[in-house]
Amino acid sequence: MPAPTTIKQLETIYWIAHLGTFERAALKLNTTQSAVSKRIQELETAVGAELFDRSLRGARLTERGEYLIGIAEEMLELQNRIHALSDGATPPVRKIRFGVTELIAMTWLPRMVTLLREQFPNVILEPEVDMSRNLYERLLDNSLDLIVIPETFSTPEVTSQVLAHVRNDWMARPGLVSATGSDALPLLDLAAYPILSQGSRSGSGLYFSKWLRNQGVVFPRQVSSDSMTALLGLTIAGLGISYMPSVCFQPLIDEGKLAIVLAEPTLPTVPYTAMYRNDRPSAIAASVAQVAAEACDFTRQFQG
Question: Distance from the CA of 33 to the CA of which of 3, 214, 258, 300 falls in 20 to 30 A?
Answer without folding.
Answer: 3
